[in-house]
Request: fold
Amino acid sequence: MPKDLVSASKPSLLAPYTLDNAQVSKASKALLKHIQSKAQKQELSSGKKNLLTADSTEDTSTVDAQPVWLIFATKTHIVDQARLKPGKIILPHPLYSIPSTPSKSSKTSSSVVAKFDPSLQTSICLITADPQRSFKEAVDHPSFPASLKSQITKVIGLEKLTKRYQTFESRRQLQSEHDIFLADDRIITRLPKVLGKAFYKGSKRPLPVNLSPPQARKKNRDPAVTSVGKTPAATTDVNGNPSKAAPPTQLAAEIQRALSATQVYLSPSVTTAIRVGSSSFTPEQIAANIDTVVREMVERFVPKKWANVKAIHVKGANTLALPIWLADELWVDEGHVLAEEEVQEREKRRIEGGGERRHGLGVKRKALREAAAGGAKDVNADGDADERRKSKRIKDSADE
Reply:
């Protein structure tokens, strides 16, 4: 093992380990340098300008840049079955450039928001529960931030989405028209069947966002008062019916929170990939996001915390994984370690058991062959008896 790698010799639940900031920074710089160098080589060979190597004064969207992933390896499975609803980790440097609406008393909005770049126009498609009218009214409400409203170019309900986009070509066109897709977390599990595999192979997988009104949430909040400005919440639509959408200010805060977070998709495996940035980020931004994601993963998602962490790597879309943390021991606790004598005894029993199974299989095959041979003899015997009976009938007929 290289000397500059951080290792955990004795993992323990009571001894929380931390990342080596120098190692994380070193890996981030090396990865970004490799991605940029590879992009420059491709630009020279093709003779076309690459977006990844454009000047900082030009429009370099994070959507077009290559993603940077954190590969989190554990010693045992994190969960027993796959979860369609991902977990969220708020990043100090969000993956998307979004407008910020700071508020002194807001409790629903994230404390970490991105700086809005007016030159970067991001198209957001908002997929909502039915009916969609209440959500469109909330987005068009005067209290909804104008800077964020300009980014939401489409609001569509699940019913219309299912009817309008039934063919592969129409879904592909929808995917190309927007940069980011946000979906109501109440219908997020139904979208894979509606949108198809195209949306779930690339980087435009719909991000879940909580669009439900306060009275429909688990936490008991006052639906008549919002956290921004203490103004009455829009809990009813224009016809006076109960609205399925959150108040405009709260809706905007939830959208900003979803865009400020990275998604954690858990499955019954020992490897989890979390996006922590893109090639347009600086090494310091990548390192800060990695530190946050590792801390949240260990505290919230990994059973037995650091004792269950095997390795942590960082990689690009088409690069090798660079290690930033490795554990010396491959087991969670001492109960998973077998003595040499016990290993040999188990191997001996396995070999003996395999021999017995092979012997039993041979006996079974022999019995089947004998049964088949006996059946053939019975068939021949029955055939001879039939011939004798037939000859006897012919002889009796001749005598008469």
